[in-house]
Amino acid sequence: MPAFTARTGILIPHTVTDLTEFSANYERQLVWVEQDPAGAAAQYRSRTIRNPFGGDGVVCLKYRGEELLGPKYWDDVDGIWNALVEMTAGYLSSGSGQGLLDGQPVNLILQRAGRSAIFGVAEKRFWIDPADFIAPLLDAAQAHFTWHRDQVGRGENGMLQRISRLREA
Length: 169
Fold this sequence. Notes:
Layout: E1 4-11, H1 19-25, E2 30-32, H2 37-50, E3 56-63, E4 66-69, E5 75-76, H3 77-94, E6 96-101, E7 106-113, E8 116-121, E9 124-128, H4 134-152, H5 157-168
Antiparallel strand pairs: 1-2, 1-3, 3-4, 3-5, 6-7, 7-8, 8-9
């Protein structure tokens, strides 16, 4: 089992009205990109017609079986992935990076701590090993923006190029 996993789901209902109910039953209220890329893209495009944020949904990150990011932080999934890439860029350049989930507002942080690092969302902190976290996170971000470009039909080459540059750093 990999140390890090990521899944992205596009929201089926118009919005989340009860966070507790949604968090308890979110699996049934999302179309998962990894399981049904074409269906998730169709849902994304359909949502865009009804509201400006077609990408409302959830990015679920788990590290060593522990949920780092999940349904409590539902938002525009493109914005979540942008924030994760920004956070990673800051970490790779200076040892400390952050991103913002605009719709919450919630800060994401990634900060060097000796040989380890700390990933934070809101007030929660998790110890992670950068060696088995950074590359899979960038892989997942690349997969998201590739899906967005190829399946949703919106150009995301700028983010894909940015991720490529981060891999070279």
